[in-house]
Amino acid sequence: MTDVTTQQTAHQTTTESADGEQLATPVNVEQAVHAIADRARTASRIVARANRSHKDKALEAIGEALVANQGAILRANQKDLESGRAKGTSAALLDRLSLSEERIAGLAAALENLAGLPDPVGTIDRGQTLPNGVRLRQVHVPLGVVAAIYEARPNVTVDIAGLALKSGNAVILRGGSAAAHTNAALLGIIRDALDRTGLPADAVQTVDEFGREGANVLMKARGRVDVLIPRGGHDLIQTVVSNAAVPVIETGEGNVHIFLDESADEEMAVDILLNAKTQRPSVCNTVETLLVHKDAKAAAAVLEALSGAGVRIHADARIQGILPQGVSADTASEDDWAREYMDLDIAVAMVDTVDEALEHIRTWSTGHTEAIITNNLARSEEFIAGVDSAAVIVNASTRFTDGGELGLGAEVGISTQKMHARGPMGLRELTTTKWIIQGDGQIRR
C-alpha cells in the first residue's frame, strides 16, 4: 500500500438476480465506508455501556467459536498461503500469515486471558475535593470507533477485536489482500459470537471488500473514526502516518538492538541471542542488530551459536577479524544497520564503549526495543538512562516486548510514539479519559 487517492471510486460488487445470474453493481466506496463507520459509531455506544460480565462472556464465546470452527479457518488460511506461495511471498511473511491448530488455540487462550483482566472503563486516574467542595474525578472511557490497517497478520484480527470489545470500543478492520480468506472467516465467526451474546455484530466490521480504496476512505474519515492504528511494515505505516486525516497512533517497525557488554555471562548471552533471533524471526520484537563490546568475553560463543542456528551474519570489519573458526559472515553495509530483516539475518558491529553503542542505537533505531546483556549494574543503569525507545530490556530476550508476555492480554501493536500510548498497546491504551466534576450549586467567583 503506497498510494493514497482522495478521488471517489466506483467499486464493483456482485448480486444475484432472480434467475441466478451474477450481476455487477457499482458501489460508491466513500459512501459504503462511511456507512460502515456510522454503524460502528452506533455499536460503540452500546458496547461502551456494556458491563464487564457481558463483555467477558462475548470474549469467551469468540474464543470457543474459534476452536469449534478451526477447520473452516484453516481451510481459508490454506487458500491465502497457496496464493502467497504462488506470488513468491517470503518465508518470513508466510509464517506471519500462517495459522495452525496450536495458533488458533493460542488466540482462544488469549481471549480467555483478556476476559480475566480488569475492565479499564470507569477506572479513576486521579480525584480530589476542591476547597469549595467541588468533587473531581478523571475516569477512563472508551475511545469510540477504532480503525486498524494491517497486513498478512490474521492473529491481529482477533487480538484487536478482543481488545476493542473489552475496552468498550467498536473497531473497523482493514486486513489486506494477503489474508483475505482467513480474515473473512475470522470476522464471520466473531460477528456471529457477538450476535449470540447480545452485543452488536457491527462492533467489529471490515472494509476489506473495498481494497485500497476502502483504506484510503477510512484514513480520511475524520469525525467518523476516532483513532487509526497502522500495523505492518515501513511502507504501510508511513503511508498511513503521512496521509491520514484522522488521529493516528504510530506503531513502529522493529529495528531492535542488543548490546553485548564486556561482562556478559556467556551462557546467558547465547540463550538470549538465540531466543531473540531464532524463536520467531518474522516478528517486530526480534533482534536485528547486535552490538559487541570490544572486550566482550561472550562474543565468540554468541557468534558461533548464531551461525550454528542458521543465522546469516552481516558483520563490520572488526567483527570479521574475530570470527571463530568455521563461522563466516557477509560484509555489512550501511543499509544493514537500518534493516528490519524479519528473517534469519543479523547485523553485527563492534563498539569500544557503551556510549558508542548508544550512539549507534540513536542513529539507527526505530524506537521499538533495545536490550543489554551485562553483569555490571552501573552499566545497565547507564544503558537504561541513555536509550530513548519504547522498551528497554536488561538480561532478557527482546521477544518479551509483547502485550501477552507483559500481562496485557494481547496488543494492538507496539507504539513507538511518545503521546498517549507507548510500547505494547493493551486495554488501557484503547481508552481516553474524561473529567467528572460534581458540585452542590457552587459558582465560580
From TrEMBL:
Belongs to the gamma-glutamyl phosphate reductase family. InterPro entries: Ald_DH/histidinol_DH, Ald_DH_C, Ald_DH_N, Aldehyde_DH_dom, G-glutamylP_reductase_CS, Glu-5-SA_DH, GPR_dom. It comes from the Bacteria. This is Gamma-glutamyl phosphate reductase. It holds the Pfam family Aldedh. Residues 1-24 are annotated as: Disordered. Residues 12-299 form the Aldehyde dehydrogenase domain. Residues 1-15 have a biased composition (Low complexity). Its EC number is 1.2.1.41. It comes from Arthrobacter parietis. It catalyses: L-glutamate 5-semialdehyde + phosphate + NADP(+) = L-glutamyl 5-phosphate + NADPH + H(+). Pathway: Amino-acid biosynthesis; L-proline biosynthesis; L-glutamate 5-semialdehyde from L-glutamate: step 2/2. It is found in: Cytoplasm. The keyword Oxidoreductase applies. The keyword Amino-acid biosynthesis applies. Catalyzes the NADPH-dependent reduction of L-glutamate 5-phosphate into L-glutamate 5-semialdehyde and phosphate. The product spontaneously undergoes cyclization to form 1-pyrroline-5-carboxylate. Its main location: cytoplasm. Keywords: Amino-acid biosynthesis, Cytoplasm, NADP, Oxidoreductase, Proline biosynthesis.
